Amino acid sequence: MKLFSTRQIAQLDQYTIQNEPIADIDLMERASLQITNWIVHRFSTEQRMMIFAGPGNNGGDALAIARQLAGLDYNCEVYLLDFGKELKGSRAINWQRLEEQGRVKLSHIREVEDFPELQEADVILDGLFGSGLSRPLEGFPAEVVDFLNQTTNTIIAIDIPSGLMGEDNTGNTEHIVRADFTLTFQFPKISFLLAENEQYVGRWKVLPIGLHPDGIEKEESLFHWLEKEEVQEMIPVRSKFEHKGTLGHALLIAGSFGKMGAAVLASKACLRAGVGLLTTHIPRLGYSILQTAVPEAMASVDQHDSVFTEFPKLEPYSAIGVGPGLDQKQNTWKALCALLESAKVPLVIDADALNILSLQKEWLEKLPEGSILTPHPGEFRRLVGEAENSYQYIHKQLDFSKKYRCVVVLKGACTSVSLPDGRLFFNSTGNPGMATAGSGDVLTGVILGLLAQGMSPEEAALTGVFLHGLAGDVAAKKRTEFSLIAGDLVEEMGEAFRKIMD
Q: Shortest CA distance to 183 belongs to which of 361, 30, 35, 402?
């Protein structure tokens, strides 16, 4: 699914109004009804709905919701942020409809003394400011937001928490509503997918409002929300006559003394991703561990007892992965440099291999085109330098992919995958239980297994990230997020495939 800027969403609204066609007031009514239905299924008519509305379209939505809820026997009170200007357009129509209905207490708030007294069970609806905000709140609007944030009541944000911008919030960290739920229209806002904004957005839900599909199709976007339907199209259908020789041969270079678990997890994940053959290159002392733990993998044994110092001839391999549990000894540095210079196929690079590259950034020029880097935020920061927030980091990520003609998988709650063509995908699967040791090693193995089977680097990265997160969701449902371990992700990979292919 495409993700759009707030400017583009406004354009899609206008396209829908002109081409459906539908009046602005009716589109507002349709959007508001979605939120009303959501509230009705979750909150009692015994709870008072305290609705804070601004003078813009977001306030117009809030006024329509108040009328709809009152018509369903909810006790609603509306507090309109009053700048002394007359309401216009759809906002004015909705205010008039409320007056005519006569079932909602209507108040204006112009100063702190106008703030209502709240009861413990009251539910607050935030309709003060929408996604078109372009600068931080200040003055009395900021005081209203601070008042809401001081309460312990449940807060539901309409479309976006007031004070939060849809994309870049650099320098905007105060006077933003801290919502428990955000009910957004048609598309998630890009700012919802960035870690530092979770404290404002809470749990968010996308509600469809029927924006015109032709407008969505025509509107270009660099940002995407990765969902099942897109991944389904990337997974190839297997021929009846496939065999292990036609399904790729992966080389995984992993493990060191004390970190052989990383090699085991990545190897198992690679095999579960469907690769025909896997050779795992390991230090000499890891031989018995690998052969016992992963009998399906072939072992290539390094001359060194405890670290990676060499690699086998690369001709047999359709994809190469390097990094899990590797360590950063000097001999490993030399071997990694030689691997970058020798490889003719894309690499999947993770963990200590990335840490070495961050100390030898000139080696990045040696990356085979289409290589896939899978850093966590700390590793990525060491590669590209500091940034003020996640929004700046994703732009650094895009620049990095373009410069080095590679795919970057920046791991996190909504893992972002940047492609050399300038597109960036946020992943929709996964859960906090996956924040556990070895989870990244599993992801490396999955992506390597898909890449070795002939998927393009872009498809392997996107499919791998989605599968990895989906396996985590399956595991968390069975075991809870608290008890999930990396091995569970490997065990549930088959069920993740089944859910996609079904």
A: 35
